[in-house]
Amino acid sequence: MRSLRKDADAEALWGEILCSGFATSTPSREGISYLQKHAKQGHLRSQYILARQYLSGELINKDFSQAKYWVDLAAKSGYVPAQQLLGEMYQQGKGVAVNPTEARYWFEQAQKNNISS
Length: 117
Prior knowledge:
The chain has 117 residues and is mostly helical. The chain has helices spanning 2-20, 30-40, 44-56, 64-76, 80-92, 100-116.
């Protein structure tokens, strides 16, 4: 079971590398399929990176509802970068209505979880 998890982590990382363009001369849309596969399987970093891709619209069509869906899953599972991003989304009104109370909640969650990590 542990080796299966390592394989999933490696594939998710490969998806992130392809999207960043680090391994190629330009970012590759091919990485999105890796991220989607592992996000659906509950890989928190994949959910977070996929949400960022939906927010930017660089390699995939900009879709705020999908960004919110994926970042919300990762944030509620305690993934600190996702909690920070969700706080920013509520603070800036990106894909959600501006909500200072929600923004503060997610920033506090991120800080609490970052300290306890």
